Structure formats: structure tokens, C-alpha cells
């Protein structure tokens, strides 16, 4: 009887491990600034300002305007924590609120570096929201590369972000081969604010899902978990179908940010929180199989299709970055002050 119980337990564990996968969608400890990339000819800083692993170069985007080689050499950015944006709802978007809403690297004794977020909500009694967004839409098919200390991107010879692993998988914003999502978990630091939290996820069709995680009215680190109410655990109750395999591309999801929801009856003004990571539990879309023929090597259909999509992702990302670059070039130097007026003696 005892042996039978042990056998049943082993079978249950094996079946459970085959049924669902757990993966880290994004880990903000991976996004610390670890290299220094010049922001222009007057940049004399030495502190790291970009994240090596997630560097992206948008100098080659087809966009109106003539740029010198020197200007193109600094058209680079990354998912470094302090590059993320805090976008307020239109009714909250005063100059004072926007200036005081931003992200920062925060040292945590428990987790190392995490993402810190400050949001300035209005004091008035109306609902407000804030989006914490990556500086660009995280690409799903960016090939593996070696990044130099100055931010130069050198694709590796065996890199292939289309049919193999891409640079933004494994905790940098992308998880592939995702079928039905069972659960989403966020490690977040609460400071007793009664605000709600949504996690924003993009699927391979471009549709954004808002997953409501709960409220931040607790003190310290906590794990907020969303369990899919439409997830069917019992296989016999599922809608069983056979889906075509090749040349269908593998479904994926990518992280698209957080949304903080402030009720009009709640306290306004400054709001602070911290994020460590986002994890997902999901069913595999396609099982790993040892197939007799390598379909993709023979036909290359997925490679052609996803190369087109990858270029489209890069153009969307690059155009927004070029507009920000042009605006930065037009901006007055914050160190510039008025020249003191000359006295009569000096003249």
C-alpha cells in the first residue's frame, strides 16, 4: 500500500510538471545600468546610464531628416530602469505632476536592485491612473548579440531570435510558447496605499491584456497573484482540438508595463512603490517533440514571416526614439544660466 501511494505521488508530480510551465516574464534586477553610453558631445558623465543586455540601436531606422555619423552613433537606448516612463491620465497631466512622476533604481536588502516608482497624483477628488511603461515596445524576435562597453551591438554568428532564443527572453520581457495563462504573480512593495494594480501583457496578435492584481494596501514586500477564472484544470472538461503545427509560429507574450489605479476618494499627492519581478504559469502551446524532418530548415516560412515582423517592430520603436532624440537636441541645456550684466566700470 505504501509503495502504491509513493507511485501515485510520483505520477502526479510528473503529470503536473508536464501540464504547466512557470517562467519569469521580467526581472527588474536584470535591468540595472551597467555601462556608460554617451548622450552627446557635451556629455561628461561617468556613471552607468544604460543596461548592456537590452541595448537597442535605432540609427538605421528609415526616418526623415539628415543626421551626421556622430548623431547616429548616440541613437541608442535600453531597458535600464531609469529609462522607463510614467504616463499620467489626461486629467492628471499637469506640469508639476509630470515632473514628479518617474522611475529610479532602488537598492533592496532582500532582492538587490529593484525598480522604484514615484507618481504624483492630483489632490482633487477624481479618479486617476498612471502607466509605468518601457521606453520602447519590447521586441519578441531580437537576435542574441554581444554588447561592448560603449553600447555597440554585435550580433553573434549563431544568433537567431526567430526560431531560437531571442535576447529579451529569460527575464527580460518575453516568454515564448505560451498557450493558456493560468496565473500571474508580481512581487511588489506596498506602503499602505489603497491603489489598485494592473499588469499589462501583450500577446502575439498585438492585443493588450490588463490583469488586475489587487490593491497595494499592505506594508512591505508582498506577492500579488491573479488566477485565471476561466482556466479549466480538468482535461476532460476542455475543448479538445487538433491544431495545425508547421508553419504556424509559436505564440508568445511580452510585458507592456503596469497601471496604477487611484480612486477619487483615496489620498492624492505623491505615491511610492517598488517592483521586483513578474512571473507567469501557463500551458505550453506546442509540446517539445523530436520530429523526423526539420520543417523550418527546409522551407524557411517562419523565418521569412518573423523577419518581416521583427523589422516592423524595429521601425515602430525607432521612430519614437528618433522623435525623442530630436526633441532632446532642441532642448535648452539645463546648466545654462543668464550672463551677468556688465557694470559701467567693466565696460
Short description:
This protein is an alpha+beta fold and 347 residues long. The protein is built from 5 helices and 16 strands.
What are the salient characteristics of this protein?
disordered N terminus, 18% helix, six-stranded antiparallel beta sheet, alpha+beta, 347 residues
Structure description:
This protein has 347 residues and is α+β, with helices and mostly antiparallel strands. It has 5 helices and 16 strands. The chain has helices at residues 2-19, 69-73, 95-99, 295-299, 301-330, and strands spanning 21-27, 56-57, 76-77, 85-88, 102-108, 112-121, 128-133, 145-147, 153-155, 174-176, 178-191, 196-203, 208-215, 219-227, 252-262, 269-284. The strands form 4 sheets. Strands 1, 5, 6, 11, 14 and 16 form a 6-stranded antiparallel beta sheet that branches. Strands 4, 7, 10, 12, 13 and 15 form a 6-stranded antiparallel beta sheet that branches. It has a two-stranded antiparallel sheet with strand order 2-3. A hairpin with a 4-residue loop joins strand 12 and strand 13. It is globular. The model is unreliable at 1-18 (pLDDT under 50).
Amino acid at each position: 500500500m505504501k509503495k502504491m501511494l509513493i507511485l501515485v505521488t510520483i505520477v502526479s508530480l510528473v503529470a503536473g510538471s508536464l501540464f504547466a510551465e512557470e517562467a519569469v516574464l521580467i526581472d527588474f534586477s536584470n535591468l540595472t545600468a551597467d555601462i556608460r553610453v554617451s548622450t552627446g558631445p557635451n556629455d561628461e558623465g561617468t556613471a552607468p546610464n544604460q543596461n548592456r543586455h537590452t541595448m537597442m540601436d535605432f540609427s538605421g531606422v528609415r526616418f526623415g531628416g539628415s543626421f551626421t555619423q556622430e548623431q547616429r552613433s548616440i541613437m541608442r537606448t535600453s531597458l535600464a530602469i531609469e529609462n522607463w516612463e510614467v504616463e499620467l491620465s489626461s486629467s492628471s497631466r499637469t506640469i508639476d505632476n509630470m515632473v514628479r512622476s518617474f522611475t529610479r533604481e532602488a537598492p533592496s536588502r532582500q532582492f538587490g536592485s529593484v525598480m522604484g516608482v514615484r507618481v504624483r497624483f492630483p489632490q482633487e477628488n477624481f479618479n486617476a491612473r498612471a502607466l509605468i511603461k518601457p521606453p520602447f515596445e519590447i521586441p519578441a524576435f531580437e537576435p542574441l548579440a554581444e554588447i561592448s562597453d560603449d553600447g555597440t551591438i554585435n550580433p553573434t554568428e549563431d544568433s537567431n531570435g526567430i526560431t531560437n532564443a531571442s535576447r529579451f527572453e529569460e527575464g527580460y520581457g518575453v516568454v515564448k510558447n505560451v498557450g493558456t495563462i493560468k496565473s500571474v504573480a508580481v512581487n511588489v512593495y506596498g506602503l499602505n496605499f489603497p491603489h489598485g494594480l494592473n499588469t499589462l501583457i501583450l500577446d502575439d496578435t498585438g492585443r493588450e491584456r490588463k490583469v488586475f492584481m489587487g490593491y497595494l494596501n499592505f506594508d512591505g514586500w508582498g506577492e500579488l497573484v491573479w488566477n485565471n477564472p476561466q482556466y479549466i484544470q480538468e482535461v476532460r472538461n476542455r475543448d479538445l482540438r487538433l491544431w495545425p503545427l508547421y508553419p504556424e509560429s509559436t505564440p508568445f507574450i511580452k510585458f507592456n508595463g503596469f497601471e496604477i489605479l487611484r480612486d477619487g476618494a483615496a489620498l492624492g499627492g505623491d505615491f511610492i512603490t517598488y517592483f521586483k519581478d513578474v512571473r507567469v504559469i501557463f500551458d505550453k502551446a506546442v509540446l517539445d517533440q523530436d520530429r523526423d524532418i526539420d520543417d523550418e530548415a527546409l522551407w524557411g516560412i517562419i523565418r521569412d514571416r518573423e523577419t518581416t515582423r521583427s523589422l516592423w517592430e524595429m521601425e515602430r520603436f525607432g521612430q519614437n526614439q528618433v522623435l525623442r532624440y530630436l526633441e532632446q537636441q532642441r532642448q535648452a541645456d539645463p546648466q545654462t544660466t543668464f550672463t551677468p550684466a556688465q557694470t559701467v566700470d567693466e565696460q
